[in-house]
Fold this sequence. Notes:
The protein has one helix spanning 10-16, and strands at 28-29, 36-37, 48-49, 52-53. It is an alpha+beta fold and 62 residues long.
Amino acid sequence: xxxxxxxxxxxxxxxxxxxxxxxxxxxxxxPKCHEFKMxxxxxxxxxxxxxxxxxxxxxxxx
Length: 62
């Protein structure tokens, strides 16, 4: 038999939605220039990844 759904109070409904917050992305320090960057990505400040220059970065842009 079909049973009607029970009323969900505002408090119970909002408790379920309480964990939908954004989290801060993890940042690591670049070993070359000591700027903060996303892990496993090329540093935007110096252009290095894993000890090698991957992209050229203008000195004037710094």
